[in-house]
Amino acid sequence: MDGGSKGPRGQLLHLDVCVDEQKPRSGVLELLGRLRPQWKPQDIKMKVFTEGITNQLMGCFVGSLQELGAVLVRVYGRMTELYVDREREVEMFKILHSHNCGPQIYCSFQNGICYEFVRGTVLDNTLLTQPAIYRLIATEMGKIHSIKLESDPVENILWKKMAQFLKLVHNAQSNTPAPHSSKLLQEIPSIETLSDEMETLKRHLSQIGSPTVLCHNDLLTKNIIYDNKEGMVRFIDYEYADFNYQAFDIGNHFNEFAGTSDTDYSLYPSPELQRDWLTAYLESYKHSVGLEATVTEREVQKLYVQVCKFSLASNFFWGLWAILQARYSSIDFDFERYAMARFDYYFEKKEEYFGLTLS
């Protein structure tokens, strides 16, 4: 299964190939000629996945996509190198694969990566509220959060990444005209307001004791693969994976209950669902780090409050991201409306969540 994934001295294989976003087949066949030389070009099938709103993703296979050996080819979205650290993404692939929490990466190429297809189906939004499913997700997140690296202490990336996004938004607004028909500049908060809000978030959230752990940081439904035969879930796509606050990763996932195409925050999980989810998570996390797995109501309540507060940071973060995507992305998606939905809910819940106390 290695498929030629190693270059010199154990480095990831890099292929000097550029895949055309509009006509990808010839570039993809060139990649597969190295990764799967036994496949005959005329037998190779490609399935384009349309769920993504950052990159283009294709599943390549002979026979069935669900058979062993299928390859995912991800072509990076336009200008995403501005805010995604591609070298760090490859590191995260390797770390999560080595802990049996992610697929194997096969190679990088000029404008993307190839990696192992994770068997199963992309999770449907309706499944997020089913206890049997959301407890699997909570358990898997607990496992990932328990992964420790030898390079401790680690750097928490949240505020640095958020400041980077804010700077890119400022530069984009200063240097490029807004897309025609854009109402975004009139409706989103000013750079000064956004900067003040970020500082307020940083002051408040840095003091509430959420530990820094290895996080996925982008756990929407399309990044969760459910294998009903095995009764398990796997997380995919590690563009934003890095060390972050535990409560950010969970609050971010809860925000994703609202969906992306038609964001509807009435679908945000109820306090009862959240507490059940957090109980399953804490059982998994404590077990994985070698603690007594019994979970107290006090522990659940503390994490519940931390998650509510960090869900604000998640909405703020992806609001900034969506402004950038509205400027640069070639993907057909209403990023402006998405940015507004994120910021609107941030301001709607800010006072309530800031008012919650940990005791």
Verbal overview:
The strands form three sheets. A six-stranded mixed beta sheet has the order 1-5-6-4-3-2, sandwiched between helices. The chain is built from ten helices and eleven strands. β9 (224-227) and β10 (232-235) form a beta hairpin. The model has no long low-confidence stretch (mean pLDDT 91). Helices cover 43% and strands 13% of the residues. With 359 residues, it is an alpha+beta fold. The radius of gyration is 21 Å and the shape is globular.
Strand percentage:
5-15%
Distance between the termini: 51 Å
- Tell how many strands the DSSP assignment holds: 11
Give the low-pLDDT segments.
none
Our count of helices gives 10
* Gross geometry: globular
Would you list the SSEs in sequence order as H and E? EHEEEHEEEHHHHEEEEHHHH
Main sheet overview: 6 strands, mixed
- Which radius of gyration do the C-alpha atoms yield? 21 Å
Query: Strands across the major sheet, in which order?
Result: 1-5-6-4-3-2
Quaternary status = single chain
**What does the average pLDDT come to?**
91
Specify the structural class. Answer: alpha+beta
**What level of helicity do the residues show?**
40-55%
